[in-house]
Amino acid sequence: MKRTFHQELVLNRWMLSHFKGGSLAALKERLGEDRHEGIDDDGQTRFFHELTRNLFNMDRISEGELRRYDLNIVRHWQAITHRRNAADGVILTLKYFQYLSLLFSEIYLDWYFNRPQQLLDGLNEQMAAYRLEPGAEAFRNYTADDLNKLAFWNATGSGKTLLLHVNIHQYLHYFQAGKANVWPDRIILLTPNEGLSRQHLEEFRLSGINAHLFDKNQSDSLYNGWIDVIEVTKLAEEMGDKTVATGAFEGNNLVLVDEGHRGAGTAGGVWMARRAALVRGGFAFEYSATFSQSVAKGATVEKAEQDILKAKAKRIFDTTYARLDASQQAQIALTSAEHARARIEGVREAYAKAVLIDYSYKYFYADGYGKESLILNLDDAGYDQHGALYFTACLLSFYQQLWLWDTHRDRIAEFNIEKPLWVFVGNTVSGEDGDVLAVLKFLASFLNDDAQAIEWISDLIADKARLLDPKGNDVFAGRFAPLMQRDAETIYADILRRLFNAEARQRLKLVNLKGSKGELALRVGNAPHFGVINIGDDAGFFKTAEDVEAFDTETDDFGGGLFGTINLEGSKLNVLIGSRKFTEGWSSWRVSTMGLLNMGQGEGSQIIQLFGRGVRLKGKGMSLRRSLPHERPKGVHLERLETLNIFGVRANYMAAFKDYLKEEGITPSDEIIALDFPTKSNLPAGKRLKTLKLKDGYKDNQIKGFKRTHFPWLYEVPEDFVGKIKLPTATLDLYPRIAALSTRDNNAAKVAPDARHKGKL
Fold first, then answer.
1. Model-level pTM?
2. How open is the CA angle 631-26-126, to the nearest 5 degrees?
3. What is the C-alpha to C-alpha distance for residues 29 and 409, in angstroms, rounded to an integer?
4. Angle between the 160-176 and 63-88 helix axes, to the nearest 10 degrees?
5. d(CA 229, CA 235)
6. Residue 630: is it exposed, middle or buried by C-beta count within 10 angstroms (0-12/13-18/19+)?
7. E strands within 601-754?
8. Of 156, 350, 501, 702, whose CB has the highest number of CB atoms within 10 Å?
9. 579, 517, 600, 581: which is closest to 233 by C-alpha?
10. 744 contacts: CB under 8 Å, gap ≥ 6
11. 262-288, pLDDT tens digit by residue?
């Protein structure tokens, strides 16, 4: 089987070796239940008490050390959540994966500051064991220079921001060693863009941490302990009007890098070098949900050194390195600066040595966190013929979510579903054929030609549309079941009211908000704005749009920005349109339907980042989890509100995206095989309905991390079974992937195909 980057994480392996079982699955089995969350009467976490029940290796960590680590975590967590708890009226508690992230940090920092040689020796012992594996990479041994960076591979929505805040407290605790007046030369947070910088400032405020945007003209002497927030794009070799030289930051710094995968790609060597200059002599924490997609194809240090030598041989001797004699090879031997450069460019090795915890999306999803995803992709030929109909189906899918949320709001309140938001992301903005303009033209046609729109809605809710995916399957078959009892004209009128904020059909209007750079608003007639466009060149786009006859334009000289109001309670904004900037730096609990236009395979990790924007879910009791079938009120179709609908319009990255999901152990929705078999619902007294059974190694003890009450379908179904049971998709690491069991007309079990489980169900 092909190795993945998950298997190369040497530091993560060393950390897991401190615990019995030596794997995240073993820890999750013991710590994953909700009852372990929270603080016990003695001030320790309940996780701590479970760990002391023969779950950690006492030859690595004593119980006293573990107790100390746990108390540090409690203190730091309470420090950053005190204000948040008061503001939200809830008590934020650590999830098991968050706790492990912080516990691993405590262990590492303690060894780094107090037992550095033992840390180095332990990691190299782990490296030696790793190299014995078939297919292991030719990683070099750890050196002291490798120890000052930790990377957190945590899924979007898993609370990386809060971890970052606690990590600051943890680092300062060990750095200061009881001396409160001792500080790093600087504490620097690097972000991808200004929007994320501003968002971090607000998050720091909520956590009671002092932070400000970096100002190169401001003396730092007055701000010991303050966080300097700066975009990585503002770092340069020399001072400029809008940039600052990395030399200005030299010293013993604490550097935190959000979206740490940025700059780790093949073209990111310059950024990586500038980041390394900031960290030299200090320490770094990096955070990303997509390390695998960013660094998995990167080089090892040895490969990076070979590439440098080959380039020098070509440049100096105009031949290959292999053809040089010994004296010529000696002439181009690597300098210390080139060795350092190779360590920077060998990103695969660097992050394999630095990733402290791997709680990437496959674990996040398998644990029941975040939304389901549904890819509703049309093939190119179908889009050429039925593009407008496909757009209408996208609109109707979003409206269905909006209607379900609004009409059942009281019944689903405890599940913390935010008002649905429809996001369009285009690859191009400028020009008459730009993606953003294409969205506006569709919205205008939906409003202008109501007869055609109503006809298409009628076909969609009656399953007559026949829009096919690349495999010939009807993309929208059964997707609009909640709307089937309503007529198309009533639905169209309600779309005007709920989605467009309009009481009657009028023309679309594009509004240039002069008072807010980069923003344009959308409304119908004089109704309240229903959408916002957030792009870089708003003026250029508006100038192009003025010549389009399908909709009207106007300028608002005094209107304020709308983008910042999307997450406010009571927001009437239902549509957000923009470019790829939304892959980073913006987060919302609202995203429920996503339209992606002309996004190619080259987008790579950006697509996964964008996907992460949409699967965030608060969940019942802020659990972050999807609901379970027996928890859902009947008739509200809650599962559709806990699903991210993804539409691809000539988005040829979809195949690569599905490959990513498969690699993460998740079966794409259009690759589920339906096996139909009838059953009787009027069973004799005392009998129970037959259900799918686990065999061949999948024993009950392998899913102890899940409560039986969470998965009653694994055991038995009562004789009065009626209605529908929806079973969660799961990774093959934990149990076979069973996607759904339906009794709408007859019972249909949908089982995901997988070679490892063929014939075992």
1. 0.81
2. 145
3. 35
4. 130
5. 12
6. exposed
7. 643-649, 673-676, 738-742, 748-751
8. 350
9. 581
10. 724
11. 544 444 467 777 888 888 889 999 998
Give the closest residue to 38 by CA, choosing from 28, 49, 29, 27. Answer: 49
In terms of phi and psi (left: phi > 0; alpha: psi -120 to 50; beta: otherwise), the region of 585 is: left
What is the tens place of the pLDDT at every residue in 235-247?
A: 887 777 778 888 8
d(CA 750, CA 552): 48
Candidates 616, 425, 441; CA nearest to 534 is 425
- Determine whether 692 is exposed, middle or buried from the number of CB atoms within 10 Å of its CB (0-12, 13-18, 19+): middle
Q: How many Å apart are CA 184 and CA 252, to the nearest integer?
A: 6
Per residue in 538-548, pLDDT tens? 888 999 999 99
For residues 253 and 260, give the distance between their C-alpha atoms in angstroms, rounded to a whole number: 17
Rounded-to-integer distance, Cα 554 and Cα 528, Å: 15
Q: Is pLDDT of 600 > 60?
A: no
- Per residue in 651-706, pLDDT (tens digit) is 555 666 666 666 666 665 555 443 344 444 555 666 665 656 544 443 444 444 44
The SS3 call for residue 87 is helix
| Size (the chain), residues | 761
In angstroms, the CA 50 to CA 2 distance is 36
Mean pLDDT computed over 504-524 = 93
